[in-house]
Amino acid sequence: MKALIGLLLLVFGHDVSSVIHSLQFFYTGTSGLSTFPEFVIVQMVDEVQIEYYDSNTQRIITKQDWADQDYREDPDSLERANERRKGNQQVAKVNMGTLKKRFNQTGGAHIVQTMYGCEWDDEDGTTEGYEQHGYDGEDFLSLDLTTLTWVAPVHQAFTTKLRFDHDRAYNQYKKNYYTKECVDDLKKLLAYGKSTLQRTERPQVSLLQRSPSSPVVCHATGFYPDRVVVFWRRDGQELHEQVDPGEVLPNHDGTFQVSVELYLTAVPQEDWGRYECVVQLKGIEDISTPLDPAHIRTNGGDNHILAFILTGVAVVAAFAVVVGVFLYQKRNDSEKCHKPVDSDTSSENSEGQKLAPEYQPLSTGQS
Description:
Ig-like_fold, 8-stranded antiparallel β-sheet, 18 strands, 2 domains, 6-stranded mixed β-sheet, Ig-like_dom, alpha+beta, Murine Class I Major Histocompatibility Complex, H2-DB, Chain A, domain 1, Immunoglobulin-like
C-alpha cells in the first residue's frame, strides 16, 4: 500500500488533500514468553491507540478520553466487550496449540497474530477492508474480500482455508462487517475524537549532519497528522536521486517525526544554495528550508536532537512488540457471528479418537 502511494506521488505529484482514515485491531497470542502477556489486543484509529486489553488484567483500558463514549452511554456494553475479549483470549490459546502441532513444534517461543480493520477515504468515500493471520512472523492465512475466499500461503493453513471457504454465510458476514459495520464504527470514532484526530500541528524543521562527510538530514518533528510529505528540491525540481526518505515515526506525545537524507558527496559547498527541503502538510502552507551550511546542526552541539530521533525509533520498536505488528507488509458479538465450525472445536478420526482442535476465527468488532 505505501509503495503504491509512493509510486503515484512520483507520477502525479504530491497531494495531501485527501485523508484515508483507518480502524485497526491487533490480536497477539504468545507462548513461551514469560515477560509478555499470553494475549494482547490493541485497537487504533488513524494510528492512534484507543484501547488496550491483555490476559494479565483481563480488562479493557481506554487510552483516549473520547474513546469510551459508548461505554459511558451504555455501561453494560463495557462488560460485554470485556467478555468478548476473554473469549478471544481462549480462542488464541487454542489456536496456539493447534499451530504448534501443525508445525510439529513443542517448546520455544511462538507468536500467533491477527490483524484486521478497514480504511475510509474522506474525499471520495472509497473503503477497503482486510483480515490477515500470521504465525511466528510469517503469513498464515488472509481473507480475499473480492472473491470471499481465503488465501493459504503455507500448506499448514490449507485445511483451514478449505473449511473457511466452505462456510459462505460466514464469509458474507465478514464482507458485511468490513464494508459497512467497520466503516460505521470508524466514522463514529472519528466524530468522538474529532478535536484530537482531525487537528493539525505544524512541524518543526531542522537540518542535521553528523559529520562533514555525512548526508544532510531534513528532520521534521512535532507534526500531526502523520500524512506528511517531505522531499528535497534542487533549482525548484524535486530530487529522486541523492535522497533517502525515512519512515514516519511516532513521538511520545502523539505527534510524529520523519527524516529525509540528502547525499552531497559530489556537490561543492558553493552549490548547496540550489537545494532546499520542502515539508507539505494539509492545512498549512508549504515549509521550505534552504540548505544553508550556517543553519545545519552538527553532531558536536546537538546530540540531544539526534538522541530524540533515536528515541522515536525505540518507541516504534516497543510499540511494534505491543501491538504484534506483522512482519509482512500487510468482527459483532460472538453470539451474532456465523462460525465456520461447530462448538466442539475438535474432530475425530475413523477410530473415534480425538484429533487436534481446528484453527478458530476470533470474533471481530469494537464492542
